[in-house]
Amino acid sequence: MTRIEFHFNAPERLQYACRLLRKASAQNLRIGVVGSAAALRQLDAALWNFSAVDFLPHSTASDAIDLQQATGILLSEDPAVCADRQVLINLGDEVPDGFDRFERLIEIVAVDDHGRMTARQRWKHYTAQGYELKQHDLSKLGVS
Predict the structure, then answer these.
(1) How far apart are CA 28 and CA 120, in angstroms?
(2) Quick one: which of 19, 32, 58, 133 has the most CB atoms within 10 Å?
(3) Cβ contacts of residue 20 below 8 Å, gap of 6+?
(4) What is the average pLDDT score of the chain?
(5) CB within 8 A of 8, min separation 6: which ones?
(6) Of the candidates 142, 56, 129, which has an alpha carbon nearest to the alpha carbon of residue 99?
(7) Residue 51 and residue 23: Cα distance in Å, rounded?
(8) Given a cut of 90, is residue 143 above it in pLDDT?
(9) Coil, helix or strand for 57?
């Protein structure tokens, strides 16, 4: 059964996603990131500028298949494109289709009202399906 985690109270969602991707990449995990086209474009740019000393190789669904397979991080609006990944990170408002194919799903929730409201809907969906959810309150962890 997919392990589902909610990382909530992220003050800067994209910067937190970059840090999370750096950590997962260091563990040699293959990660898919789903969200809106706009959010994925912003994340793509953020990954290039995230750190002067860390490079996080990544690809997008529009890149050649060889490049997608060679990189540990794949950004796509369609979760099915990320089906060969272990971890799925959701930056979208909806429950990702086929999330149950992944070993782990991470929901990153910002501090704004819209982000909280849509996260509550996803939380209810997962619990109604019988998933036990793990939560990480980033405000208590000192994440900025």
Answers:
(1) 31
(2) 32
(3) 7, 89, 106, 108
(4) 94
(5) 107, 109, 116, 119, 135, 136, 137, 138
(6) 129
(7) 13
(8) no
(9) coil
What is the per-residue pLDDT across 92-114, written as a single tens digit (0 to 9) for each? 999 999 999 999 999 999 999 99
**CB-CB contact of 43 with 71 (8 Å):** no
CA distances from 85 to 18, 51, 62 (A): 17, 24, 17
Type of residue found at 110: A
Cross-strand bridge partners of residue 90: 34, 107
| pLDDT at site 43 | 97
Query: What domains can you pick out in the chain, each with its CATH number?
Result: 3-137 (3.40.50.10110)
Residue range 55-81, pLDDT digits in tens: 899 999 999 999 999 999 999 999 999
Cα(81)–Cα(127) distance, rounded to whole angstroms?
25
Q: Is 2 helix (H, G, I), strand (E, B) or coil?
A: coil
- At 11, list the tokens: 């003050």
Amino acid at 41: R
Helix (H, G, I), strand (E, B) or coil at 42: helix
Residue position matching structure tokens 């369609």: 78
